[in-house]
Design a protein that fits this description.
440 residues; alpha+beta; 5-stranded mixed sheet; 17 strands; 37% helix
């Protein structure tokens, strides 16, 4: 009888890590989670799917959304659910729906997969993890929360040790104020922000060419906008750097003061890696104050690691209550691909197992199991070999998984010896629990 094998093929845009890579990713998640929780952020999880009407509430292009429909559904049945494409819309719906049960300000972190119908390419996936934090308040959110989010970014980047980084911050009030004083109306201001957001991709000449296409914009305004994108400084130097432009308005003053207030609240260690960068625009319309992006200096082509900002009303589509917030997101899967490709993180650990208990014969398996359980109870991940071949085969298995310690048990005397596969030393274990704690 001819058996047809199922075809195996890589699905483009859906990353799949090897065990040692997944272990490394889990270490990164644990590192980030520990810092988030140290600031009082609490975890939530939302369904992988939302109503299509919910996901479309912020005007997302339909082609980015994966609709969910039963394979055998009638052709006339319209899909009602879709996979979420980010964690912001689910958060807005979640806060609006559960607000009466939450304590405000609501500080949440969320690490989940999201799905987007993008064209797969390097650093751009269709399925990937995002790891977000947000602080949501009722009616009013002080700038201390903006400073806290920026501080968290710095601490996470320091802990990951992926290399030197820059935290670029700006303020939408400042951009809107500057562009308005240059004669741009509200629609032209929005268009200019979207264009300036492309600076790193198309360069200053590309930005200049696109700005010139905005209806009614003057050549002097174009040149002044280009000039502002060259300003990079600390917040306490910002007013001085803006003075030559001779542009003054309440909105500009407010934007500058917001940045100064946030800057003064940052730890010195974070200030050392932070810069006010007026070329930072972030094209999404819902940002109303602080905007922030973090880049790895050695890998500028990678783009942003952390990105986000402040918004004055998170859930206006779902509730009449004003819910201002500030938050950032890290595209975790993108970051891990860079870390693996560039060797920024160790992938030497191929298994959580720290010790392997050998089995001389199946008659000894119960004793081997008992020893292994004592080690596990002391906090040491331990395996018992699944068969009883020659010891050489069992040691080879340990080496293949990167397991450092191999234990041998004398069934007659119950004496336990351990071999360190790194140092090649073999010693007798007098107390299993004590030994386990010394290497755990």
């Amino acid at each position: 009888m001819l058996v047809t094998m199922a075809k195996i093929g890589k699905i483009s845009g859906f990353p799949e890590w090897l065990p040692e890579q997944k272990i490394a990713e889990d270490r990164v998640i644990s590192t980030i989670r520990a810092i988030y929780e140290s600031f009082g952020f609490t975890p939530i999880e939302t369904p992988a799917v939302e109503l299509i009407s919910t996901l479309g509430s912020k005007g997302i292009i339909d082609k980015e959304i994966f609709a969910v429909k039963r394979l055998k559904a009638d052709e006339s049945d319209d899909a009602e659910l879709a996979l979420h494409f980010d964690l912001t819309v689910p958060l807005a719906r979640y806060v609006a729906q559960h607000g009466s049960f939450l304590s405000f300000p609501f500080k949440r972190y969320q690490c989940q997969k999201v799905w987007r119908g993008d064209r797969p390419q390097k650093g751009r996936f269709r399925e990937f993890y995002q790891f977000d934090i947000d602080i949501i308040a009722r009616d009013e959110l002080p700038l201390s929360c903006d400073a806290e989010v920026v501080s968290v970014i710095g601490l996470v980047m320091d802990a990951l040790q992926f290399g030197e980084y820059s935290i670029r911050i700006n303020n939408r009030k400042l951009l809107s104020g500057l562009y308005s004083e240059l004669g741009l109306d509200e629609s032209a201001c929005r268009a200019a922000i979207v264009i300036v957001d492309k600076l790193q991709k198309i360069g200053a000449e590309g930005v200049r060419a696109e700005l010139q296409k905005i209806s009614g914009i003057s050549e002097a305004a174009v040149e002044a906008i280009i000039k502002t994108t060259e300003i990079r400084c600390s917040a306490d130097q910002l007013a001085e750097r803006l003075a030559p432009l001779k542009l003054i308005s309440p909105l500009i003053t407010e934007g500058v003061q917001d940045l100064v207030t946030i800057w003064e609240l940052l730890p010195e260690s974070v200030k050392n890696s932070a810069v006010v960068d007026l070329s930072l625009a972030r094209g999404l319309n819902y940002y109303t104050g602080l905007i922030v992006e973090t880049t790895l200096i050695k890998y500028p082509e990678f783009g942003s690691v952390f990105s986000g900002g402040r918004y004055e009303d998170l859930a206006s589509e779902f509730t009449t209550q004003k819910l201002p917030g500030v938050g950032v997101s890290v595209g975790l899967s993108r970051l891990m691909e860079l870390a693996f490709t560039e060797g920024l993180i160790s992938t030497s650990q191929r298994s959580p197992t720290r010790a392997l208990v050998t089995v001389y014969s199946e008659d000894d398996r119960r004793l081997s199991n008992d020893v292994a359980q004592q080690l596990r109870s002391a906090g040491l991940p331990t395996e018992v070999f699944y068969k009883a071949p020659k010891l050489g085969k069992q040691i080879e298995y340990a080496e293949s998984k990167g397991v450092r310690y191999v234990l041998f048990i004398d069934a007659a005397t119950r004496e336990v010896k351990v071999k360190d596969l790194v140092t090649k030393e073999q010693t007798k274990i007098e107390n299993l629990a004590e030994w386990a704690r010394t290497i755990a």
